Amino acid sequence: MRRSNLTLLLEKLESDSDTAAAPEWTIRCDRFRIDPFHFTFHDANEVIEPFGVDFDHIGIPDAIIAGHSLSVVGASITALMEQLSLTERSGLRIDRLGGQVAVSGRDRHRRT
After folding, report:
1. pTM of the complete model
2. Which residue has the higher pLDDT, 14 or 37?
3. Which residue among 36, 47, 70, 79 has the highest number of C-beta atoms inside a 10 angstrom radius?
4. 36 upstream amide cis, omega within 30 of 0
């Protein structure tokens, strides 16, 4: 399984079955905008691909993420994303993507 900052965060938010049950984290936000947003992922065990999107070496220096109805409950995150705009180091460019987003420690979904 590939590990990233997001998977590490979700693992920390998930309950540990060996300990007493603690209340789940709950965060709710009516509207959100993160501008700019920087994300990198680098797997030092993999060779950097010379062209195309290299999922082992991602570099996004200037993303914009905006939406509403953000809910974080335990390791589950849902939101209505109005805008995701980014340019990846390979040249992949997304001008505007939106939809309903759901992320958990086990599943990831996006519906438009």
Report:
1. 0.62
2. 37
3. 79
4. yes
